[in-house]
Amino acid sequence: MSETDPELRHIPKIIEFLGYVHFEYPEDPVGKLEYFKQVKGLSCKRLGELMGRDPEQLTDWMSGRKKPCKRNIQSIISFLFEQQR
């Protein structure tokens, strides 16, 4: 994040004002999770609370330091599906 990037908490209002999301929707589950986090303006801590996951684990996945196992990928997909309802 650079000095000119808006704070995460402001992203939802910016999207609402613009009327569109200014970044691309990814194909992979972890990318979709990061997209969800950004669009909703969530911190990793808050996302972890919503998912029942350790925020550090989420940070590791989204940064590419670690890859989620198949079970965790399914958990991400299920979480995102539930959020769409």
Keywords:
85 residues, mainly alpha, 434 Repressor (Amino-terminal Domain), 5 helices, 61% helix, globular
Detail the topology: elements first, then pairings.
Blueprint: H1 11-18, H2 29-40, H3 44-51, H4 55-63, H5 70-84
Helix pairs in contact: 2-5, 3-4
CATH class: Mainly Alpha
Question: How would you state the average pLDDT, rounded?
Answer: 87
CATH topology: 434 Repressor (Amino-terminal Domain)
Q: How many helices in DSSP terms?
A: 5
* Name given to the CATH architecture: Orthogonal Bundle
Query: Largest sheet, if any?
Result: none
The secondary structure category is mainly alpha
Molecular shape: globular
Question: Could you characterize the architecture of this molecule?
Answer:
With 85 residues, this protein is an all-alpha fold. The chain has one domain: 434 Repressor (Amino-terminal Domain). It contains five helices and no strands. It has helices spanning 11-18, 29-40, 44-51, 55-63, 70-84. α2 packs across α5.
Question: How would you briefly describe this protein structure?
Answer:
With 85 residues, this protein is mostly helical.
